[in-house]
Design goal:
It is a single chain. With 126 residues, the chain is mainly α. The protein has two domains: 34 residues, no CATH class; 67 residues, Malic enzyme, N-terminal domain (Rossmann fold), CATH 3.40.50. The protein is built from six helices and two strands; from the N terminus they run H-H-H-H-E-H-E-H. Strands 1-2 form a two-stranded parallel ribbon. Helix 5 links the parallel strand 1 and strand 2. The longest helix is centred in the C-terminal third of the chain and has 20 residues. The chain is globular, with a radius of gyration of 18 Å.
């Protein structure tokens, strides 16, 4: 056991993990909501539909990555499955954010079939 085991368990128990999604824009009233969501977001969606390259200008897409695992080879822990892999993938997302200012999203897959993994990752990688 590591000297950090108990402290790490307590931290994760208290905080329910290490990551949270936060708004970049205020949503304090109806006008804010109308610009961030509906009806205003329709203009953003239609602009991107006409010119998909605008996705990198109008969304966080250019500064986002997925941290994907099937749980089969996790940080020297071996095949601990997707549930066991999640805290490690979440930790990697924290590293991206803290040291690279990149938004990373932990994704764990409940399959270890290589073809399925490739298909899933391709399907979510707009």
């Amino acid at each position: 056991m590591s000297q950090y085991d108990d402290a790490a368990l307590e931290l994760h128990r208290q905080k329910k993990g290490k990551l949270a999604v936060a708004c970049k824009v205020p949503v304090n009233n109806r006008e804010d909501l109308s610009k961030a969501y509906t009806p205003g977001v329709g203009a953003v969606s239609m602009a991107i539909a006409r010119d998909p390259a605008l996705m990198y200008e109008l969304t966080p897409k250019g500064n986002s990555v997925a941290v994907v695992s099937d749980g089969s080879a996790v940080l020297g822990l071996g095949n601990i499955g997707p549930e066991g892999a999640y805290p490690v993938m979440e930790g990697k997302a924290v590293l991206f954010k803290v040291f690279g200012a990149i938004d990373a999203y932990p994704i764990v897959l409940s399959t270890q079939n290589v073809d399925e993994i490739v298909e899933i990752v391709c399907a979510i990688s707009v």
